[in-house]
Amino acid sequence: MWARSRFFQKLGGGILERTAIGALSAFQLAALSSHKNPETMKLIKRVRRERRTLTTAFESYHIHSLAQACRNLKGDFAEVGVYEGASAALICNVKADKTLHLFDTFDGLPESTDPDRSIHKKNQYAVKFDAVRQYLSQYGGVEFYRGMFPETAAAVEEKNFAFVHFDVDLYESTRSCLEFFYQRMTPGGIMLSHDYSILTGVQQAFHEFLRDKPEGLIELNTTQCMVVRAAA
Ligand SMILES: C[S@@+](CC[C@H](N)C(=O)[O-])C[C@H]1O[C@@H](n2cnc3c(N)ncnc32)[C@H](O)[C@@H]1O
Hints:
This protein is an alpha/beta fold.
C-alpha cells in the first residue's frame, strides 16, 4: 500500500477542485474531439455543461465507453455515488433497455474514519434529490435508492450486474461496494471506480479486497481503476 499525494487531492474538493478539473478537461475535450465519435463528444460536452461533476473529460469518456461495452452482457447496471447525475447520464445514454440502479445518500458524504478524512467533509456533495431525479427523468429504466449503501441494497440482492460504477470517495463505502457487487457480477462484467490513484482509502479497499481473488486490477491512465469479473 502506498500513500499518494496528488494535485487534485491537495485541492481537497470544492470549487478549487472543480475549477482545476474544468481546466484540465478543456484540453482533454479538445484532444478527444480530434479523433473520437462526434456524437459521443457532443453528449459528454452537453452533460458536463448541464451538471457539476468531479470526473475529468477522459474519465467521462471511460465511463461511457466501458458501460457501452457491457450492454450486451446479462445483468443490470448500477452506480454508487451519483451526486448531480453527470456520470449516471452518460451511462443512461448507452444502457439501451437495461435497468440502471442508482445509490446515493443525496445528502453527501457520511462521517468517516477514512485515511482521507482530512480532505472530505460530512455532507460534502449534498444535492437536491428531486432535481437529480428530474434531470434523469428523460431516461427510462432508472431506479433510485436514497440512503447509506449497502443498507439500501436489499432490493437488488437477487440481481446480477454487467457494469457498475463506484464513485464514493471513502474506504468504507468502496469496500462495501466491492463486497456487495463482486459476487453478483456477470462473467466479463466490469466494476469501474473513480479516484483509485488519488485517494488512499479507495486504493486500500481495492488492494485488500482483491488479495484473495483471481482478477487483477487494471489501472487506467486517469484516476480510475477497473476489474473485469472472471468466470466462476
Ligand atoms: C464525488 S460524488 C459522486 C460524483 C458523481 N459520480 C459525478 O459524476 O460527478 C461522491 C458521492 O458518493 C456518495 N456516497 C459516498 N458514500 C456513500 C454511501 N456509503 N452510500 C451512499 N452514497 C455514498 C456521496 O453522497 C456523494 O454524492
